[in-house]
Amino acid sequence: MKVAVLGASGYGSAELIRLLENHPHVEIEALISSSQEGEGLMNVYPHLSHINRTLEKWDVEQLSSRVDAVFFAAPAGVSSQLLPEVVERGLIAIDLAGDFRLTPEEYRVWYGKEPAMNSWISKAVYGLSEWNREEIKTARLLTNPGCYATATLLGLLPLAKAGAIAKGPLIIDGKSGVSGAGRGLQTNRLFSEVEGNLFPYKVAEHQHTPEIEHYLERMGGASHVVTFTPQIVPMSRGILATIYAPVEAGWTTHQLREAVATTYHEHPFIRLCERGRWPRTKDVTGSNFCDLQVKVDERTGMIITAVAIDNLMKGAAGQAVQNLNIIMGWQETMGLKMLPLYP
Amino acid sequence: MKVAVLGASGYGSAELIRLLENHPHVEIEALISSSQEGEGLMNVYPHLSHINRTLEKWDVEQLSSRVDAVFFAAPAGVSSQLLPEVVERGLIAIDLAGDFRLTPEEYRVWYGKEPAMNSWISKAVYGLSEWNREEIKTARLLTNPGCYATATLLGLLPLAKAGAIAKGPLIIDGKSGVSGAGRGLQTNRLFSEVEGNLFPYKVAEHQHTPEIEHYLERMGGASHVVTFTPQIVPMSRGILATIYAPVEAGWTTHQLREAVATTYHEHPFIRLCERGRWPRTKDVTGSNFCDLQVKVDERTGMIITAVAIDNLMKGAAGQAVQNLNIIMGWQETMGLKMLPLYP
Amino acid sequence: MKVAVLGASGYGSAELIRLLENHPHVEIEALISSSQEGEGLMNVYPHLSHINRTLEKWDVEQLSSRVDAVFFAAPAGVSSQLLPEVVERGLIAIDLAGDFRLTPEEYRVWYGKEPAMNSWISKAVYGLSEWNREEIKTARLLTNPGCYATATLLGLLPLAKAGAIAKGPLIIDGKSGVSGAGRGLQTNRLFSEVEGNLFPYKVAEHQHTPEIEHYLERMGGASHVVTFTPQIVPMSRGILATIYAPVEAGWTTHQLREAVATTYHEHPFIRLCERGRWPRTKDVTGSNFCDLQVKVDERTGMIITAVAIDNLMKGAAGQAVQNLNIIMGWQETMGLKMLPLYP
Amino acid sequence: MKVAVLGASGYGSAELIRLLENHPHVEIEALISSSQEGEGLMNVYPHLSHINRTLEKWDVEQLSSRVDAVFFAAPAGVSSQLLPEVVERGLIAIDLAGDFRLTPEEYRVWYGKEPAMNSWISKAVYGLSEWNREEIKTARLLTNPGCYATATLLGLLPLAKAGAIAKGPLIIDGKSGVSGAGRGLQTNRLFSEVEGNLFPYKVAEHQHTPEIEHYLERMGGASHVVTFTPQIVPMSRGILATIYAPVEAGWTTHQLREAVATTYHEHPFIRLCERGRWPRTKDVTGSNFCDLQVKVDERTGMIITAVAIDNLMKGAAGQAVQNLNIIMGWQETMGLKMLPLYP
């Protein structure tokens, strides 16, 4: 199967290249970049200096005869423009941006941009692999979940489904490595500014908030507003979502762990930590694993659940490949069996 | 004024030495270490190689004739044994550990050790400088607040006092640089294990939890149970506490900011960030500043407040020196005027 | 093929497990650890929590019926004791320590320990894969090169062979991430001590010095004493060797680059950087690549060559697996095709 | 004394502000920035949010009535234009850039820019404080040494003066934290690119090379060409220069250490490490100290000397203030007594 990757100068694309180059059934046919068209890949990414390839410009006509699928790994607002004609030509489109995850109204409010056409948004299948497999199998337009949304939903959905979350404040304290902010040049992403630094941003304004609420309701049957604070942590990769919710009467730590364990019993990428051990971002670095733990704070009646993923893997490129595997009917772990890089 | 520092091989002591060496009114007379008695300071701390001094053993008799005050910067359980006889001999004792912050029952539960005698605990003055100045002025046994407790209380107390916190879950998501865990040898503090890593520990079991509840009630007049999750962040210094609480009806972000600004108007170490800007740990590194911000998430009815301090400064040694200044009637900022080290 | 890994609690073994778990022809049959026998792997390495396996004690008798090869990834002094009986039983032994790389006299001087028996040392084949392939093919006792030695020899040998190095000082300035120092508990490997820190150690006393001299002569036909200064850098992985040598009259940068390019033309793991670009450790992280560059400083008549490898990959576990591939007659890159993890 | 700082949005200026704000005899009257004129300091540097001050544009006329001295902390090429008129108006000018350190010919070659007028260059006094104190005392135009040059010259000059360096290759392997590269926006300074990364740049082409050669001859009486390789290290601050030179016959480690110790006997910022201990960048972080060590590798006849400074302190702002102190006849350590920040 031949594929193209659009947005090839970003970190999401670099990670897609890492995965697809070693995928037994996929061949990268084209790398597309509007900002660095004509540039050699090795100049954009010296770690790929042995790959002799040039970034191309976008040409959907010509592309549709060369590839079967396109990964969109560009900033928000690009795929809403370019993706529909890809699907119209019969290709599979996998979008790593947020252009097809929300209703047009939500998108306008939270992204502050013009949304895609609603008819296309309604065609999009949400690619939270473990929770939407049946729909994904037949998707032509797959919208890959946001990194924070992936971590949060994987942690919350088993609890919501089980009916363990009571009414009351639902708090998500998110922490992300700085690669999540992309490769764009900004002072507050310079090494000297990020090293030794930890800070919130977009407090109660992050665009993954409505995504979490939306799919928590759709997939978990639970209607909640969530208070979400994302924070930048001085590391390159990794997301840790620490989630707080009031527990429904009668639920114990043991029962919550059982609910999670049962839910993910046959899902190879989800690892429930042993009791007493908590997820660590480094335990999943470079892999598609999602580590999680849950506990009831009996003193306060709150559920605390923590979820760790690699933001570029399960939070982006890894899950995108996992979804391609599902669409194609391949083994879900194909090309994704690498163990975490440690240390 | 001559002082002694006990626990001289730890990070808290190293920071005390940094401050006291440049304090205009204080002279370090003795550095005491049970584990490294007889060792040269430069071997324990090569960054102090120009200071020719040897670590001494504990000898309260002899010490009482040499110094006027003793800083206890040893692990929990040491000062409960050694500190009373220091005070009995008429010296000032400033304890950076938690031995005198809680009731004996609380201490037994949360620290898992034998507490100090209650008669001594009741003599101790809690050294949250901005909130307890009058009592501190006459203290002989000062118990310096825990690092997480300092950040949390400085953020919560103005809101609690103002009556802005409604009933409901009070969540503290704490993040700390690894120096907070001390200099002891553990695998999970090695560079290769911490770099690129972020993880919770002592979830709902951290010993600063009762300290926060205790003094939030005592000083803020507000009785709450708190759900507290501490987390290790891959940086040496810094604490960020992100705090979530339901807002009392009618309070706006503007009003909360006013309440905070008014409270700290004359306190030189507390900096309320401009609206829209959030605290960053690196903005306070090496200084005694505490940066904070507060906001109401109107969608969810939650207050979000974030507080950044340097755990070794305002969270330990810096506040200890601030308290000594208050006790001695010196200018509160004496020896503490250094600006943050940036970058 | 079934293999055992000894020294299973160290970083070298963790990396071997990462590689061997995904190697198409190899199965890990036993993980052996003297210090943590009986411990579950997931307790030693939580990033491998999905692998249900227990560390075993050393039992050569029983092992010889279960496996075909043993990787020794223990500290110096262990394999000299345990390895010979493995080979005697007909197994393949691959030693990642330095016990079989030097003459007994050299070993005694530079390692300060009792050497292995000379008869065994003389049987050992030096596993610098690109330079010793023919001998490696038939090895039963393979001694894997040291991390600094690998980087240095890969950079120097093409120049030495070409006769481009004149008489005079040969300087190796080595820099290594801290994982190279292992997982043992020492104060100067704690995160708070290593972060923001860079320092030399074992100056002119590092045990890879004689290894470099020894094999530079044996494989490059060039007899030089080398001045070697290793330095710890605040990162987990990666070695950069910056090498200085007087250039033989007449050689230009272009010619040196040609010599290197020709030498490594058919070696897939060696990447000569484009002119003007210099190796960066992060460009090889997690991969078996070796990036290098060379230049003549015309002003001073010195060759400057820089070589980057991942110390745990091409500098240890990666090269060990590469050598196993050569011994077994498999494709040299088998199980080693992963691209670098970036960022 | 009132001073102005030009280039106020860079790291060098931030460090000057840190120092000058706490200097007992100096008051900052103006912060000047061409790129961010009119901006509040707190927006440029949130860590200084308690300082209410606005960046000004350059206006020499008006400035000369307000201040007595100007620190130039702008990129190369600015002070050559602006500084002369400052001196002509009778102010003291301290230049942290390289515009007045080299001959016009050298500058043109190594900086690739138009040099300052030679008449002004010849008026400039080189501010290597420990080696040029007498000239500095009467300087009106002081050119502060480059960061690498400071480290290198402080290490080499005592050996050169003593006659201990033989003819032959003189190698400087320099390593710097990334703050040395400034606050400008470049992809290769982003956190995700620098973390875990170590790489050479400007190999044999760095502009501090002629500065080292120039002043090694002028102050040390030794004419050498030097081979210099700078490298970026994943840390914010700190320089380590590892220097290799052939030893003149008869010199031992002990004698070299004596030569260094004697030279710097009365210089409070220079610390010769105890025998066996090597300089570490973190031991000087935030301070004006320079730590050094020297050794003869008897096997190879090479001197190895290593020097650590904080690039923003002794390598820039710290030495600039030290020089102001000397010019003004104040105590050399005034405002510079802070101990290193550790950890």
UniProtKB/TrEMBL annotation, chains A, B, C, D:
<feature type="domain" description="Semialdehyde dehydrogenase NAD-binding">
    <location>
        <begin position="2"/>
        <end position="139"/>
    </location>
</feature>
<keyword id="KW-0055">Arginine biosynthesis</keyword>
<feature type="active site">
    <location>
        <position position="147"/>
    </location>
</feature>
<dbReference type="InterPro" id="IPR050085">
    <property type="entry name" value="AGPR"/>
</dbReference>
<dbReference type="GO" id="GO:0070401">
    <property type="term" value="F:NADP+ binding"/>
</dbReference>
<keyword id="KW-0560">Oxidoreductase</keyword>
<keyword id="KW-0028">Amino-acid biosynthesis</keyword>
<dbReference type="InterPro" id="IPR036291">
    <property type="entry name" value="NAD(P)-bd_dom_sf"/>
</dbReference>
<dbReference type="Pfam" id="PF01118">
    <property type="entry name" value="Semialdhyde_dh"/>
</dbReference>
<comment type="similarity">
    <text>Belongs to the NAGSA dehydrogenase family. Type 1 subfamily.</text>
</comment>
<dbReference type="Pfam" id="PF22698">
    <property type="entry name" value="Semialdhyde_dhC_1"/>
</dbReference>
<dbReference type="GO" id="GO:0051287">
    <property type="term" value="F:NAD binding"/>
</dbReference>
<protein>
    <recommendedName>
        <fullName>N-acetyl-gamma-glutamyl-phosphate reductase</fullName>
        <ecNumber>1.2.1.38</ecNumber>
    </recommendedName>
</protein>
<dbReference type="InterPro" id="IPR000706">
    <property type="entry name" value="AGPR_type-1"/>
</dbReference>
<dbReference type="GO" id="GO:0005737">
    <property type="term" value="C:cytoplasm"/>
</dbReference>
<dbReference type="InterPro" id="IPR000534">
    <property type="entry name" value="Semialdehyde_DH_NAD-bd"/>
</dbReference>
<comment type="pathway">
    <text>Amino-acid biosynthesis; L-arginine biosynthesis; N(2)-acetyl-L-ornithine from L-glutamate: step 3/4.</text>
</comment>
<keyword id="KW-0521">NADP</keyword>
<keyword id="KW-0963">Cytoplasm</keyword>
<dbReference type="GO" id="GO:0003942">
    <property type="term" value="F:N-acetyl-gamma-glutamyl-phosphate reductase activity"/>
</dbReference>
<comment type="function">
    <text>Catalyzes the NADPH-dependent reduction of N-acetyl-5-glutamyl phosphate to yield N-acetyl-L-glutamate 5-semialdehyde.</text>
</comment>
<dbReference type="InterPro" id="IPR058924">
    <property type="entry name" value="AGPR_dimerisation_dom"/>
</dbReference>
<dbReference type="GO" id="GO:0006526">
    <property type="term" value="P:L-arginine biosynthetic process"/>
</dbReference>
